[in-house]
Amino acid sequence: MNTEDEITAKDIQKALEKRTSLLPQEKLRLFVKYYFARRDMYLGILGKNPPPLYVLEIPVLKEKADHFKMAFKDVLPDVAFYYAVKSNNHPDVSRALVKSGFGLDVSSSLELEMALGLDAGDIVFSGPGKTKEELALAAGNSGRTVVLLDSFGELTRLESVAAMNNTTVRTGVRLTNNPAGLWRKFGILLSDLPDFWHAVQKCPHIRLTGLQFHSSWNMTPVPQIEFIEKLGKVLEGMCEEFKRAVTFIDIGGGYWPEHGEWLQPAGTPEGMLRKALGKEAGSAGDHYWVPALPIEHFAENLGRAVKRHILSVTECRICLEPGRWICNGAMHILLSVIDKKAPDLVITDAGTNSIGWERFETDYFPVLNLTRPFMKEIPCDILGSLCTPHDVWGYSYWGEDIQNGDILMIPSQGAYTYSLRQNFIKPLPMVVVI
Ligand SMILES: Cc1ncc(COP(=O)(O)O)c(C=O)c1O
After folding, report:
1. Residue 329: CB partners within 8 Å, gap ≥ 6?
2. pLDDT digits (tens, 9 = 90+) for 329-363
3. Is the CB of 84 inside a 6 Å radius of any atom of ligand 1?
4. pLDDT-based confidence at 7, cuts 50/70/90?
5. Selecting from 3.20.20.10, 3.40.50.300, 3.30.70.1140, 3.50.50.60, what CATH number does the domain 60-260+293-326 have?
6. For residue 74, what pLDDT is reported?
7. Whether pTM exceeds 0.90
8. How far apart are CA 200 and CA 188, in angstroms?
9. What whole-number distance in Å separates Cα of residue 371 and Cα of residue 43?
10. What is the spatial distance between Cα 190 and Cα 169, in angstroms, rounded to a whole number?
11. CA distance 195 to 242
């Protein structure tokens, strides 16, 4: 550790005094009210399908897709949309988005096979470490698939696979937008772009047609804009032949939904520090909030940056790869109470293997008692039935009371839950599509 990394008591005090904003009560109540108002519809599903269930609402996906498209179509002359399949890999999600005019962004042969099976006409295949078999599948479907190359090595591997298939493959190359830390595993350095272009010239079966970058978890468009500025400068220095070849620039996904990030005390930086110091993270009844900006703000500001730094240098299509923003609100989880063990402790039928990670220890989402709806939040440990204490749905519920057999709903669990589900101890819930 160098001396600059030394932590003083003052640093700790300062960090502990930081306060993440509290989630405004009005925002939370509006959210709960919205889902309670639709209670009969959700309970109606249970007539035919016993809990636990995932409920997938196709009309929500359609509405989100139209909203997202509209925001960006208003500000960019030539724009295309690709749904990031990894965010929710249920085939009906991708099917609905293809119907809404989206292409699909896939990251494995599993996802690519699904996209091909859904007759998606426009697919981008991104991700590090593609195997030869995955490259061969893409090369065999090059009419519908653009391979977003992740490295010089992958370029060489795809060239030999494409030569064997006697085909030419359309490609782009992913650019590293954060060369420090773990994000350096993605793509090539911006400064290596001229060398990559030279390497492509030696690959007769590869046609480089675009560039891609992606930054995650954007509450504002600032991280994307910063990279667009850097990219613009590098593009200016590239040869005319390269600029003519580039027909698209894919600026990735990472748009955080407008409701922001809702956190338990243990999910805030000050709560994590308190826990590391052996204290309680905070009061379980407090919910915290990291705001995110509306998609129109992303669109306006990204549109402006793209026009200024990219379209002024080269004419091309701008591609976007949203995942979370599109699918998060479209899937919910329905559970039932199996065992009320104390007035403030219940066990549910499903465990958090259905979402694949210990999400609700750090993220807050209201647990709604659909059987006894009431606009009041009551402290109670709502825990799953896995043999681990980390199987947490929440530390409270919204309702009048809670009893065995009650139906609980955790709304808006569409992104990075269903596709992370695990085969662990309990069977996985069925999906009901409405
Ligand atoms: C290359 C790429 N594009 C798009 C996405 C989708 O991101 P999000 O779901 O945050 O919009 C991801 C997510 O990891 C990604 O890696």
Report:
1. 60, 64, 257, 411, 412, 414
2. 999 999 999 999 999 999 999 999 999 999 999 99
3. yes
4. confident
5. 3.20.20.10
6. 86
7. yes
8. 14
9. 8
10. 22
11. 12
CA of 255 to the centre of ligand 1 (A): 9
Pocket flag, ligand 1, residue 324 (CB < 6 Å): yes
At 3 the pLDDT is 55
Q: Are 202 and 242 in contact (CB under 8 A)?
A: no
Domain-wise residue ranges, the chain: 19-54+328-433, 60-260+293-326
Among 65, 44, 66, smallest CA distance to 55 is for 44
Q: Report DSSP letters for 254-279, one per residue.
A: -BPPTT-EEE-GGGSHHHHHHHHTTS
Decide if 355 contacts 421 (C-beta within 8 A): yes
pLDDT of residue 352: 94
| Residue 172 Cβ < 6 Å to ligand 1 | no
Cβ–ligand 1 contact at 105 (below 6 Å): yes
CATH topology for 19-54+328-433 is Lyase, Ornithine Decarboxylase; Chain A, domain 1 (2.40.37)
Give pLDDT, residue 6.
84
Q: What Cα–Cα distance (Å) separates residue 144 from each residue in 52, 103, 123, 135, 199?
A: 38, 10, 6, 14, 24
pLDDT above 80: residue 1: no
User: What mean pLDDT do residues 409-426 have?
Assistant: 96
